[in-house]
Structures are given as structure tokens and as C-alpha cells.
Amino acid sequence: MSDDLLLRADDGGIATLTLNAPGSLNALSDAMLAALKAEFARLAEDNATRVVILNGAGKAFCAGHDLKEMQAGRAAEDKGRAYFADLFARCAEVMQMIPALPQPVIAEVHGIATAAGCQLVASCDMAVAAEGTRFGVNGVNIGLFCSTPMVALSRNVPRKIAFEMLTTGEFIDTARAADIGLVNRVVPSQTLGAETRALAETVAGKLSAAVKIGKRAFYDQIEMTRAAAYDHAASVMVENMLWRDTEEGIAAFIEKRKPDWS
């Protein structure tokens, strides 16, 4: 990984990735995006990892793009047009890798998650937030509408709330974030790590192959019409039902014993 810019710790089938640039509030710099892309690519081929936790070092989860880097990009002859196009394309690629991963990804959020940092939370499959965390897509406050963060945000929360956040640049607290569905759980800051780990362990304890096929089907069907979604989901369930481990799991439930999964 890029000079420890992104840390990884593995334990019990759970991989914890830590954004490790506390001095910039874990901004999504060019190097950070590259590190995330490389690690997500490794996880996509990692059959041993069942769940991924994504958190941030220091006093914040992620403050979004590195504005100093972005301003430096203006020095190019085209005033930064090519750099900005490439930056937002690379960021979009990284964000889309998260739902495409076979493992569920849980954001463990504290401090702030702003702009592309809020986009990162919205791109994860689940999120646990410490009390007092603030969320915002606040680019409009500096004259930059958060158009790419809007994509993930508007697929997580009701559209009128997303639009309000995008146009006012106002922050929301954890209670509001939970109410609108941006995060799953709000916990005391001192138990954030333990609570996130407990959720990860619950998911990791399920039949991994079933969770993987289910995650893929979940995102596939969201993009379909209702009828097509039912057709697709039914075909996935048929495939799932024919597995040996699923047959064993159902038999174990009926017989009131623990399944002997392979």
C-alpha cells in the first residue's frame, strides 16, 4: 500500500481498511484513491475475507477530495479540465468497486464525512456512526456542487432530503442520518469499533457464498423494473437452493442442530 496511506488488518475473516492520512482528515487524494483501488482489486479476488470494515485514522472519517491538489491541477494549460475529468472518473471507479465487491463493506464513521467522504459512506453497504458525527455534501458552500457525491447519496436517502443537503450545504447529525437511512446504527463514540466489529462478525458468521450471491443480486435487482427484479431474484434463489450447503443449512434448521457447512 502507498506508504501506509491505507492500512489493512485481517482477523477472523474480517478485513479492516483504515484511511491513514489524519493530517488531511483522510482526504481522497490521488494517492489515497490509488491505494483504495488497489486494495479493492485485491479484495475482489480474496476468498478468505468475508466482511470489510472501512474506517479513518485521527479525528475524522473522510473530508472528501484534497482541495489543495485540485487547485494545483489548475496550473495546466487547459486550466485543469483534463485533470478534473480524470480525477472524478477515478473517484467514481473506486466508489463503484465497493458495491461490486463480493464482501459486504461496513463504513465505521466518526468526526465528519463530507462531500466525497459522505459519498464514500453512501457507497458502502452498511454504516455505523459514532454519536456526534456530522455528514454533509457541502461543496456548494465553496461554489462547487457535489454532483458526483449526489449519485451515491440520492440512491441512499429520499430525493427531497438529498436535494436539500446538496443545495444548502448544511450538515446533518447522526440522528438525522439514521432517520433518513444514510447510516444503519448510531453508537457511543467509545464503543464504535466494538459495535462495528460485532455487526461484521454477525455477517461473517453466515454462509459466505450465500451472502456473496445475495449482495450481487441486491444491487442487480435495484436497477431493474419490479417484474424483471422478481424474475432475476427467483433465478438466484433457485441457484442458491441447489447448493449442498443450503440443503444442509435447511436440514440443520429442521433438525434443530448447527449446520455442517463446507
UniProtKB/TrEMBL annotation:
Function: May play a role in fatty acid biosynthesis and insulin sensitivity.
Keyword Transmembrane: no
A single GO molecular function term of this UniProt record: hydro-lyase activity
Pfam family, one: ECH_1
Gene responsible for this protein: echA8_2
Stated name of the protein: Enoyl-CoA hydratase domain-containing protein 3, mitochondrial
Family: Belongs to the enoyl-CoA hydratase/isomerase family.
Stored InterPro entries: ClpP/crotonase-like_dom_sf, Enoyl-CoA_hydra/iso, Enoyl-CoA_hydra_C, Mitochondrial_ECH-domain
Lineage: Bacteria, Pseudomonadati, Pseudomonadota, Alphaproteobacteria, Rhodobacterales
UniProtKB keywords: Fatty acid metabolism, Lipid metabolism, Lyase, Transit peptide
GO biological process, alphabetically ordered: fatty acid metabolic process
Organism: Albidovulum aquaemixtae
Annotated NCBIfam families: PRK08139.1 (NF006008)
